[in-house]
Design a protein that fits this description.
This protein is an alpha/beta fold and about 325 residues long. The protein has two domains: about 5-210, inorganic pyrophosphatase (n-terminal core) (Alpha-Beta Complex), CATH 3.90.1640.10; about 215-335, Roll (Diaminopimelate Epimerase, Chain A, domain 1), CATH 3.10.310.30. It is built from eleven helices and 14 strands. It has helices at about 5-15, 30-45, 100-110, 145-155, 160-175, 185-195, 200-210, 215-225, 245-250, 260-270, 300-305; strands at about 20-25, 50-55, 70, 85-90, 120-125, 135-140, 230, 235-240, 275-285, 285-290, 310, 315-320, 325, 330-335. A six-stranded parallel beta sheet has the order 3-2-1-4-5-6. A hairpin with a 2-residue loop joins strand 13 and strand 14. Helix 2 packs antiparallel against helix 5 and helix 4 (about 145-155) runs antiparallel to helix 5. The longest helix is centred in the first third of the chain and has 17 residues, at about 30-45. The protein is globular. The N and C termini lie far apart (about 45 Å).
């Protein structure tokens, strides 16, 4: 199928469904939640019974995104109750928070132990890691998953309401670093302009993203800058934030936009003579790593894949078990 056929097939699957599960990636960012918010609007138009799920959704952070309050961190009890599972912005099946259960469904079907299962649809703008969905709509040249949803709406002649326009613009603005990153394509800016004409509120989005810097987030910025180390030979700048530091700065709830860490590593990548920026942070018993580059000679997605992660050529991430240790030459991950 070509792209138009895929987008129309996705709509037909939703239109014929009764119960739909909408899934965003674990620890969702603004693009993931805005994508879910947009598809909740579509489901509302189709009068579908839906459940929206995102593992480890930050509470009290993204309330400005339409339908954010309808996204829950509690797993649905039975996946087989759904006709369609719509997976958004996950990058890989491991990022769904439902990997073991989804794989069990696929295996049970292949072994003939179940007659039917939910139809899996994936919308994503990350490079392919593993094909698992029945219908995969993966456009790695798009700036955000909400940009893919824009094309889904257009191809199926669905009205882009003010709520949908806000969702699409939020995803585009945050995933392009407010149009400062290299993925700020001509098309991304054109779509954003159209969303403004359709009623998206730029001042509101700016107030909740650019201008909504809290005192504690500034403290995190300060600690990250204090902890950075630059290797002039390799052009790698790195910084680390331990769990104890983050709890001390943010409190035990650590309610903060995950875009904060993306903003920090993106800023580090713009410094003079830097080829690659790396930000490491402890989260529970795992290390979350974010990689950025502004050059063409390094593919940070390839680096991330070596650690079980992935992403784009200029922006990627990974997660691995361990704890951080600061050394004289930078940061080291100690495996548990």
């Amino acid at each position: 199928m070509n792209l138009t056929e895929k987008l129309q097939a996705a709509y037909n699957q939703l239109r014929l469904a009764k119960r739909v599960l909408i899934v965003a990636h674990t620890s969702p960012d603004a693009d993931a939640l805005a994508s879910v918010g947009a598809m909740i609007e579509v489901a509302r138009f189709l009068k579908l019974n839906i459940y929206a799920y995102a593992d480890k959704k930050p509470e009290g952070v993204y309330g400005f995104i339409p339908n954010e309050a309808l996204v829950f961190s509690k797993e649905p009890e039975d996946l087989r109750q759904f006709d369609v599972i719509l997976i958004l912005d996950c990058g890989s099946i491991s990022r769904t928070g439902l990997e073991a259960r989804l794989r069990a469904l696929l295996k049970a079907e292949s072994e003939g132990r179940i007659v039917e299962r939910p139809y899996l649809i994936e919308f994503d703008h990350h490079p392919l890691q593993e094909a698992y969905a029945d219908l995969e709509i993966r456009l790695s040249d798009k700036a955000s998953t909400t940009e893919i949803i824009y094309h889904f709406l257009k191809e199926n002649n669905l009205e882009i309401t003010k709520e949908l326009a806000n969702c699409i613009l939020i995803g585009l603005m945050t995933d392009t670093g407010h149009f400062l990153h290299a993925n700020s394509s001509k098309e991304a800016i054109t779509v954003s302009s159209e969303m403004l004409l359709r009623g998206a509120s730029l001042p509101k989005i700016i107030d909740h993203t650019v201008n909504n810097k809290s005192f504690v987030s500034l403290k995190v910025w300060g600690r990250a800058l204090e902890n950075m180390h630059f290797n002039a030979e390799t052009g790698l700048i790195s910084s680390g934030l331990t769990a104890s530091e983050l709890i001390d700065l943010l409190g035990p709830e650590m309610a903060v936009s995950l875009d904060l860490f993306g903003d920090i590593v993106s800023f580090l990548s713009t410094l003079a003579d830097v080829k690659v920026a790396l930000l490491l942070r402890e989260e529970g018993d795992r290390i979350k790593g974010s990689l950025r580059t502004n050059g063409e000679e390094v593919d940070v997605a390839a680096i991330a894949r070596d650690f079980g992660g992935g992403g784009h050529k200029k922006a990627a991430g990974f997660s691995l078990a361990g704890r951080l240790s600061r050394t004289a030459t930078g940061w080291k991950v100690i495996k548990r």
